[in-house]
Amino acid sequence: LEQARRPSVIWLSFQECTGCTESLTRSSSPTLENLIFDVISLDYHHTLQAAAGDAAEHAREQAMELNAGEYLVVVDGSLPGPNANPGYSTIAGISNYEMLMDTIEGAAAVVAVGTCATFGGLPKADPNPTGAVSVQDLVKDKPVINVSGCPPVPMVLTGVLAQFLTFGTLPELDEYGRPRAFFGQSIHDRCYRRPFYDKGKFAEAFDDEGAKAGWCLYRLGCKGPMTYNACATMKWNGGTSWPIEAGYPCLGCSEPEFWDAGGFYKPL
Ligand code: SF4
Ligand code: F3S
Predict the structure, then answer these.
(1) Ligand 2 test: best mutation among 20, 254, 259, most atoms within 8 Å of CB?
(2) End residue of a domain, out of 182, 208, 242
(3) Is 205 exposed, middle or buried (0-12, 13-18, 19+ CB in 10 A)?
(4) N or C: which end of the chain has fewer CB within 10 A?
């Protein structure tokens, strides 16, 4: 039987660390294999595609041509802005800026994945040597969905893709362009250590009796009250664990200005 063509996804990786793709490979429902073999046609992705060099660029151009107006562009990483030196980050001799603007032209929507693509992330942190900007700083004439997090929770990304590809609709977004279904509540509101916070039981050191008893990590710098993400309920590695369950405070990795906001274990 002839199979219906799977929706095309073009994934662009700019100034990033591949952590977002690493996270995606840990998606459990659907798995990455299920996603790319049964649900979407992943036509361009530096880490996952078999093609290289000219063949890879040809695959991107062909996907754009064959699926004009229908394909999705996923971006991880920030990119040097239009006024920055284009040589700071290039792929196949094309600047990141040029490649983004060229690739989104026929796209139905753009999904920015990870805190670098959504808010600029580490490359944009002070002193921002490459003049990095986020996807939403540049894309003004297409819907942009921000799946933030460093890295993002993989099933948030697959959930957004599945909704768009199954129903052709985009999720309701919060003030930062993040899907409300996943980013609508704070880490603090869904944290299993919250009863300790409410009773005033706090760990004061990473190895004290409170830490061993699983008390609240607020006094060790937890940014859960100011951070919106789905970690507390979706977790990682098929629901195995997440930072606070592993004993570390939330760093606020899904919020704008994460790297410059002092989230790294600074006591409050
Ligand atoms: Fe809130 Fe963090 Fe304490 Fe959890 S550990 S209750 S997120 S302050
Ligand atoms: Fe990031 Fe905090 Fe979740 S650091 S991974 S938003 S618990």
Answers:
(1) 254
(2) 182
(3) exposed
(4) N
Per-residue pLDDT of 206-247, as tens digits, reads 999 999 999 999 999 999 999 999 999 999 888 899 999 999
CB of residue 232 inside a 6 A radius of ligand 1: no
This model of the complex carries an ipTM of 0.98
Q: Which atom of ligand 1 is nearest to the CA of 216?
A: 3
Q: Is 80 in the pocket of ligand 2 (CB under 6 A)?
A: no
Q: Are residues 143 and 253 in the same domain?
A: no
Looking at the fold, whether 212 and 160 belong to one and the same domain comes out as no
pLDDT tens figures, 189-214: 999 999 999 999 999 999 999 999 99
250 lines ligand 2 (CB under 6 A): yes
The first and second tokens of residue 64, run together, are: 């754009």
My answer on whether 156 and 204 are in the same domain is no
Separation of alpha carbons 61 and 92, rounded Å = 13
How much is the pLDDT for 143?
95
